[in-house]
Design a protein that fits this description.
alpha/beta, Rossmann fold, six-stranded mixed sheet, four-stranded antiparallel sheet, 9 helices, 10 strands, 24% strand
Length: 263
Amino acid sequence: MKTQSANSKEAVISISQLYKSFEDNHVLQGVDLDLHKGENVIVLGRSGSGKSVLIKIIVGLLKPDKGIVKVFGQQIDKISKQELTKLRLRIGFLFQNNALYDSMTVYENLEFTLIRNQKQIRGNEVKKAIKNVLEEVGLADTAGQLPGELSGGQKKRIAIARALVLRPEIILYDEPTSELDPITGAEMNELINEVQKKYKTSSIIITHDLTCAKTTGDRILMLIDGKFIREGNFEEVFDTDDKRVNGFFDYNFIQEKHESYSK
């Protein structure tokens, strides 16, 4: 279990009274969140609870209906497209489906990301950067392979390598352990912690996986019915008689245990 606290009280992401609805579906209803420098924050909730909507708003893919979202002190919905593009270079995004280009090799996926975003970088620097990140995620021998030749866990690692190649200050993880077996999931959690330690990243980790939450989170926020109803470390969040929280805990572990026995 994570026990460290944020390295600094400096907030790299600050969200205040955030609201977002899609017609009659009120997804976020007054969300407040600060991500401090060097901290891993878990946003925990069931599928469809608004977790992914939250991080899409943070990177400007969706606009809030109401509220303030600041990243590195800049209000996301108030800055120009050029400023937003520049800001996004400081943020790594791990998509739930990895979003790798199937027709490109692993090397080409990373090369495309690097050259598109750092046009001044030279050939030898590109090769060195890609070699380094592939070694750091433990997949140095996959550079010539296509994504279709990789396992689910390897694809997740390559997606992390693609984010790291730009040396981001913030990483947003969207369900990093989804569709992984328990052993591969544990390896992914370890990698997330290694990335935080080595790169001094600040991260929001979107998940419904309690093992991931307990292993990687410095602080956990539980999102239910569009609001954060619990906040703290793992024990503090689940030390409650709230049936909504206890039901989530029971379902998460009992259901996963049942599914593992059924395989």
